[in-house]
Write a structure and sequence with these properties.
By secondary structure, this protein is an alpha/beta fold. Helices cover 23% and strands 24% of the residues. The strands form 3 sheets. Strands 1-7-6-4-5 form a 5-stranded mixed sheet, with helices on both faces. Strands 8-12-11-9-10 form a 5-stranded mixed sheet, sandwiched between helices. It has a two-stranded antiparallel sheet with strand order 2-3. The longest helix is centred in the middle third of the chain and has 16 residues, at 134-149. It is globular. It starts with 21 loop residues before the first strand and ends with a strand.
């Protein structure tokens, strides 16, 4: 169980500075097909739950999709994703699951499953309602929790699921593929701890100038083009020759930039020191998000 305590007296000594949470492993997996919803011994509960979930919104539950629909649930994707990670022997302090759209079968909690399946007694919770900023918010929270409680090991799981039991016509940032990404952090790793900045209230016409100001900060490039992974918000064609642009795959609003990062990291193995940048802009929430990772020499 995760416990919090009152803050200490004002004259208490400052807590020991924690070690950096380095990115030790980054894995990504896409999924096709999936299990049909029916037959399901609990189908009436799923049907009622889905109808209740959409009732406050201007969409209509479509029960006929239960008859012909298929889904890879968040837990099913996460179970397969864990197989791509090395055996986790050290106890985890934090497990954070982030997604832009809800699970088509939300009857089981992914974070609760991971809290039971992984070593240790981690603080585990889900993060949603962040649009395409979800992955960046997750990384920022990892650093903030680590600052507060001197965490040493953390796991972030990002999920996109393409199955919906209601109409999504006209909706923004709807996943079109089933994809799962895991970022494992610890005292040792192939890249430094991501430094994540989230700027609120950025208008669409301000995105490029604001992003330029962040990207032109010194460090890590050694005169070479800066590897930049833009999500589906920034226009990849707008960046000039000073950037090595690697666009995220479409249809993955939560996982896309991190899937692209997983593809890029092996390319730069042993090519440090090097800075990699992942950027995204959510036009609905007007969040501009930037994460930088520094690869040390020989990593």
């Amino acid at each position: 169980m995760y416990l919090t305590t009152p803050s200490g007296p004002a004259d208490a000594p400052a807590p020991a500075r924690r070690a950096s949470l380095r990115l030790s492993h980054l894995v990504s997996r896409t999924f096709s097909g999936g299990r049909p919803f029916l037959p399901d011994p609990l189908e009436p509960s799923l049907s009622r739950m889905q109808a209740d979930l959409v009732r406050p919104y201007p969409v209509e539950f479509r029960p006929e999709l239960l008859e012909r629909g298929e889904r890879n649930t968040f837990i099913e994707m996460t179970q397969e994703l864990l197989a791509d990670l090395p055996p986790l022997e050290e106890p985890l302090d934090l497990v954070l699951v982030a997604h832009t759209a809800p699970d088509a079968d939300p009857r089981r909690s992914t974070s609760c499953f991971l809290a039971d399946a992984l070593p240790g007694d981690p603080l585990a919770f889900n993060l949603s309602d962040q649009g395409t900023a979800a992955g960046f918010t997750a990384l920022r929270l990892v650093s903030e929790y680590a600052d507060a409680d001197v965490f040493r090991h953390a796991l972030v799981v990002l999920l996109d699921q393409r199955t919906f039991l209601y109409d999504t016509v006209g909706a923004h940032d709807v996943p079109r593929q089933d994809c799962a990404v895991a970022l494992l952090f610890g005292p040792e790793g192939r890249a430094g701890e991501p430094v994540t900045r989230q700027l609120a209230g950025v208008a669409p016409e301000e995105v490029r100038s604001t992003l330029d100001a962040v990207l032109n900060e010194p460090g890590g490039g050694a005169g070479r083009p800066l590897p930049l992974i833009p999500g589906q918000g920034p226009d990849a064609e707008e960046f000039g020759p000073g950037f090595d642009v690697r666009p995220a795959p479409p249809g993955r609003p939560c996982t896309g930039p991190w899937t692209a990062l997983a593809d890029v990291l092996p390319e730069f193995a042993g090519d440090g020191p090097r800075r990699l940048v992942v950027a995204e802009y959510d036009s609905t929430l007007r969040y501009l998000c930037v994460s930088t990772l520094d690869l040390e020499e020989g990593t």
